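Journal club prep, shared notes

We agreed each person brings one worked example of a sequence with its structure written out as tokens. Mine is FAD-binding oxidoreductase. I'm keeping it raw so we can talk through how to read the token line rather than staring at a rendered picture. Sequence first:
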Amino acid sequence: MQISLENLLEEVSGIETITNPAQVAKLSEDYAHFSPVLVPLLAGKVGDVVVRPSNESEVLRIAQTCVKYKIPLTVRGSGTGNYGQCTPMRGGIILETSRLQAIKWIKAGLACVEAGVKMVTLDKKAQEIGWESRMVPSTFRTATVGGFIAGGSGGIGSVLYGQLRDRGNLRAVRVVTLEDEPRIIELRGDDVQKVNHAYGTNGIITELEVPLATAYGWSEFVVSFTDFMTAARFGQALGNSDGIIKKLISVHAAPSSNYFTALQSYIPKDSHCALVLVAESDREPFLSLVKEFQGEVCYEKNAQEASKGLSLVEFSWNHTTLHARATDDSFTYLQSLFLNDPKLELVQRMHEYFGDEVIMHLEFIRVNGVVIPAAIQLVRFTTGDRLNEIIAYHESQGVFIANPHTYILEDGGMKTVDYAQLNFKRMVDPYGLMNPDKMKAWKS
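Then the structure, token by token:
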């Protein structure tokens, strides 16, 4: 059944809408331009209208309209993802969650929020009673809680708490379905994995219960080193130092730090460095470790100073790519895991083999109880074929690549069909209207 835009707007009257083509186009994209592979694949993919519901009842009305007229629906948070997660492949309605911003409650260790609440807003509120988010993306100032769960995988804090899909890192979620009679379903326990990191392909997330962590005063340090492998081994040693509480260990091979414009007066040019967040109370043992690895602290802020202005968080994870591309937009990136490399021999092999073409950038995370280096390497892009060769070589040597150059859910980090997510989609989205073409298994 076809419906005109005029009639569609009538169906959702009373709900905020955006029809200006330029605004709709802007709200149809994220940071997929980091990938020269994704740019042509997503070019021209825009929605027809943006809707901004302010409560769950309005979400249900939008869902009912989509089902009635078989209109594709794509959910969007703040658009800070990198893989085109919120780009509508078949037009239709973009449901933007920015007005779903109620913090329902916060108590010791747990918070309940609507999907559009920003990570930074949740943290400020939680810190009033001594708690904070377990992990946040480098885009924490603008990213939403719902968007992080639907499109993210981990971030600052993952060195302590692992990945978002680890049991316990999401407690409950409410979703609106696109069945003939849309309904609200609450998922708890392991059932939350049905929609966790599913790109909004199988339910409109409206509300979440997320665990919190004890809020420490986090001191920020930049430590410079004369060679990369010393910096990397320092990062691994810090990750393994159970008596030192840390939230971020971000290690960068030269010339990465040259692109950190706001830090250039602190970091020696062409040096290798580690960006670190450590509990202020653990400063002394941390500095002892720095001395052991002959590092030089070139930047330090205590917790009070670090709570104001720019944070080192905004030079870590994929913000590193953002800063590099601000200087040279030919840069792209990889996402890698060094799963069984306790002596960093594979890290060293990749670093030495590719040299300046693939600049090493490590983010230490916890996987199955063990701290390991993940990598978000800067890649000097030349051709798609060369990029595929770089990926293939990493994989042939035992490096796991979570491919950031695809918008297909299963082809990125999953590498396999998640049948729980697929079966849930079959139930709650029988017409395949939610973020179509992103879940490969749906079409097979």
